[in-house]
Amino acid sequence: MLTISGTVAFDSIRTPLGSHSKLLGGSGMFASVAASLFAQPYLVSIIGQDFNPDYLAFLTSRKIDLSGIKRSDGLTFHWSGFYEKDMGQAHTLATDLNVLLEFDPLVPTAAHNSRVVLMGNFDPALQKKAILQFKKPELVVVDTMNFWIENSIDDVRAMLALADVLILNDQELRLLTGVDNVIKALPEAIALGPKRIVVKKGEHGALMYNGSDYFMCPAVPITELVDPTGAGDTFAGAFSGYLSTVPVWDELAFRRAVIYGILVSSHTVQGFSVDGIKSLTLDKLEAAFETYKSRSMLPTSL
Amino acid sequence: MLTISGTVAFDSIRTPLGSHSKLLGGSGMFASVAASLFAQPYLVSIIGQDFNPDYLAFLTSRKIDLSGIKRSDGLTFHWSGFYEKDMGQAHTLATDLNVLLEFDPLVPTAAHNSRVVLMGNFDPALQKKAILQFKKPELVVVDTMNFWIENSIDDVRAMLALADVLILNDQELRLLTGVDNVIKALPEAIALGPKRIVVKKGEHGALMYNGSDYFMCPAVPITELVDPTGAGDTFAGAFSGYLSTVPVWDELAFRRAVIYGILVSSHTVQGFSVDGIKSLTLDKLEAAFETYKSRSMLPTSL
To answer: Which of A86, A123, B169, B263 is the most buried (most CB within 10 A)?
Structure first.
C-alpha cells in the first residue's frame, strides 16, 4: 500500500511554448499521477470549493484514492509563475496559499498500514505530522525545496529524522548541507537521517547515494521541453510507486526506481500539467526502460 | 599507429586551489599523455627555444614520439588564465602565441600510415593541412573550440568535412549549429561531415551520437576539483588512444572509448597540468572502469 501527501493546486504557467491558467498542479497531484502507473495510491491533500470537477474525475480515473483529500470552503491553492528560455528555474509571480493555510493532513484509517509513504513537497512540520500517522511504514520517501530549507530548517531536520529516502535537486542539497561539492555533501545529508539520497539534476539525470556507494544515471535525450513543472514530483511519484510494488528493496530495486523516476519525469516536461504523462502506460514505460538501457549501458553480453 | 597534433604550451593558471606558472600544457600535449596510456603516439607540434628540458624528458618517458615536434627560435606558446570557484569556465588573461604563429604541422614520414589520427584543438586550417598528410587514416578524430567557430567558421567546416568523429562540448555544439537544444543540434553537426559526435558535458558526463542513436554517460563522482585545464584534451586523447588499439570499431568499442575519456579526464581535473594523470596506469584505469560500470549500470545478471 502506498500513500502520498502533498499539495493539489491550480498552476498558472507561462513558458516560451505557451501560457495556461489554472492547470491541474501540485506536488501531491503530480506524484500521485506518476505513482498510479504502478499502484493505486492514497492521496492526502486539501482542495477548495472552486476545484474543477473534471480534475477530480481525472484523478479518480487514475485509480487514485481521494478519501484523504479534504474539500474546504476556501479557494484552492494557486501558484502562478513563468519560465525563461532555458527553463532551468521557475520564477514565481504569485503564491495564493488559500486553503493550504488550514491544511492539516489526515491520513485515512484505511491507509494507516501503508508500506510505502511519500511526502511530496509541502510544509515540513506537516510532512512530519503526516508521517507519524502511519503505523509501521517500511519506506518513507520525502521531498522538500529551497523555501523550507531557508525558512524552516528546524522543521526540515525534524522531518528528515523520520525519512528513509530524501529526494532533492543539487542546489537544494548544497543549501541543506552548506557544502558546495555535491559528492562531499551527500554524507552530510545522510547524517541528517535518511539512509539514501537521490539527487535530481534535471537535464543531466540523477545520482543516488546509499551511504557508501553511488548510482549515476544520465538523463533521457529530449528535443521538446514544454514545461518543467512537476518533473521533480513525478520523479518522486514514479520512484515510490515502483518501489511499492517490489517485495524486497535491494540495490537493484532502488536503481530501477531511479530510472523509472527519470523516464516518467522526462515525459512530464514534454507537456503542460499532466499532458505529458496522461497517455503513458506501464507498457510504454517498459519499452522506454529498454531503450534507456540500450542507450546508457554497455551491451550486457560483453 | 596513432598520431596526434595540437599545441604544446606553457600554462600559467590560477584556480581557487592554487597558482602555478609555466606548467606543461597544450591540447596536443594533454591528448598525447592520455593516449600514451594505451599506445605510443606521434605528437606533431611546435615548441620554442625556452621549452623546459624536464618537460621533454617527461613526454619521452611516456613513450610519445617527439620527432614531429619542431623546435623553433622563438618562445613557446604561453596561455595564462584563471578559474572562478565553480571552475565551469576558463578566463583568459593572456595568450602569447609566440611560435604558434609559425606553426606549420609536418607529419613525420614514419607516421604517414597512421590508422588513427587525432587533431587536438588548434587552427582548423592547420588541422586540415595535417590531416591531408596522412595516406589512408581510418579514423580521424577532431576537437575544436568556440574561438575557431566564431572566427574561422569556413576553415572549421572544411576541416570537419574530413573528420570521422567530432568531440566538443555542449556550448560549442550550440555555437557550431545555431541550435539550442543539444539533441536537436546533433544531426546538424553530423550534416557537416563527421559520422559521430561526442559531446563533453564536464561534471555531467558525455553523450555520443552515431547518426541514429545515443550513448549517454554520466560523469565520475569527484570530490576534489583542482584544475579543469586539459580535461577535454585528455578525454579526446584517451578516446583516440583506446580506439587505436581496437581492431574493429563497433558500437561497443566507441562506447568503451567514451568511458575511458570520462575516466582519464576525471583524473586530469584532480591536479594541475598532468599531475592528476601522471601516476595513472592501464591497470588502475581498468579498475576505475569496473567501478564506473558498477556505479552506472544495472547488474548485468538481471
So the answer is: B263
| Closest partner CB to B215 (pick from A184, A220, A295) | A295
Determine whether the interchain pair A225/B181 forms a contact, defined as Cβ–Cβ distance below 8 Å: yes
Mention every residue, 6+ apart, whose C-beta is less than 8 A from residue A116: A1, A2, A3, A137, A138, A139, A141, A240, A243, A244
Among all chains, which residue has been given the C-alpha cell 491553492?
A77
Spell B80-95 as b/e; 16+ CB within 10 A means b.
bbebeeebeeeeeeee
Inform me whether the C-beta atom of residue B290 falls under 8 Å from chain A C-beta atoms: no
Q: Are B49 and B73 in contact (CB under 8 A)?
A: yes
- In angstroms, what CA-CA distances link B13 with A53, A266, B27? 63, 40, 15
Q: 3-state SS of chain B?
A: CEEEECCCEEEEEEECCEEEEEEEECHHHHHHHHHCCCCCCEEEEEECCCCCHHHHHHHHHCCCECCCEEECCCCCCEEEEEECCCCCCEEEEEEECHHHHHCCCCCCHHHCCCCEEEECCCCHHHHHHHHCCCCCCCEEEEECCHHHHHHCHHHHHHHHCCCCEEEEEHHHHHHHHCCCCHHHHHHHHHCCCCCEEEEECHHHCEEEECCCCEEEECCCCCCCCCCCCCHHHHHHHHHHHHHCCCCCCCHHHHHHHHHHHHHHHHHHCCCCCCHHHHCCCHHHHHHHHHHHHHHHCCCCCC
For residue A109, give the H/E element and its range: none
Q: Cell numbers 566507441 label which residue?
A: B254
Contact B218 A222 (CB under 8 A): no
Tell whether the model's pLDDT for residue B260 goes beyond 70: yes
Distance from CA of A159 to the nearest CA of B (A): 28
How far, in Å, CA of A224 to CA of B34, rounded? 37
What is the DSSP pairing of strand A165-169 with strand B69-71?
unpaired
- CA dist., res. A160 & res. B253, Å (int): 44
What pLDDT score does A26 carry? 98
B301 has pLDDT over 50: no
Element (H, E) at A237: helix A231-243
pLDDT (0 to 100) of residue B85: 83
**Residues in chain B closer than 8 A to A256 (CB atoms):** 298
**Chain A / chain B CB contacts < 8 angstroms:** 80
Residue of A213, A211, A206 whose CA lies nearest to A191: A211
Domains and CATH numbers, chain B: 2-296 (3.40.1190.20)
Going by the DSSP 8-state scheme, the letter that residue A75 receives in this structure is P
> Residue B166 has what pLDDT?
98
pLDDT in tens, A138-188: 999 999 999 999 999 999 999 999 999 999 999 999 999 999 999 999 999
Q: Are B127 and B159 in contact (CB under 8 A)?
A: yes
Query: Which residues lie across from A19 on neighbouring strands?
Result: A14
Q: What phi, psi does A98 have (nearest 5°)? A: 50, -120
Q: What ipTM, to 2 d.p.?
A: 0.89
Interchain CB distance below 8 Å, A207 and B213: no
The candidate with the shortest Cα–Cα distance to A112, out of A131, A134, A132, is: A134
Comparing C-alpha atoms, which of B185, B195, B276 is closest to residue B233?
Answer: B276
